[in-house]
Amino acid sequence: MIGLGATADPSKFVTDKVFSGAFPVSAQVTATLGGENAPVLFTRLTSPGLYLVRISVPSNLPAGPQALTISAGSGQTRSSLVLMVSSAP
Fold first, then answer.
1. Is the per-residue pLDDT at 15 higher than 70?
2. How far is the C-alpha of 39 from the C-alpha of 12, rounded, in Å?
3. Of 43, 58, 74, 82, which residue is least crowded by CB atoms under 10 Å?
4. pTM for the whole thing?
5. Sequence-separated (6 or more) residues with CB below 8 Å from residue 32
């Protein structure tokens, strides 16, 4: 995703150098999936302007498309974002 803001240590990311690494963001990131809290496991800046967010899918969600919302600071994803949840094998 994009738009999660600054890294926790801005000195680690210099835009005029070759980027390498994954840097924690400074904002608190939260997620909901299907209206349930989805714990955020990992939020990092992985390349200039691109962030990776990993969440834990709540075990009680039914299979099928579920609304996904990720928030950081005062911003959040658009309301039409969905994640397809599969049933456990």
1. no
2. 26
3. 74
4. 0.78
5. 38, 67, 68, 69
CA 61/CA 35 separation, integer angstroms: 9
**CB neighbours (10 Å) of residue 49?**
10
Pairwise CA distance, residues 39 & 58, whole Å: 8
Give the angle subtended at the CA of 74 by the CAs of 80 and 66, to the nearest 5°: 25
In the chain, the amino acid numbered 76 is Q
Once rounded to an integer, what is the mean pLDDT over residues 54-63?
Answer: 93
Range list of β-strands (E), the chain: 23-24, 29-33, 36-37, 40-47, 50-55, 64-72, 75-76, 82-85
Q: Output 21 or 80, whichever has higher pLDDT.
A: 80
Burial level of 60, CB count in 10 A (0-12/13-18/19+)? Answer: exposed
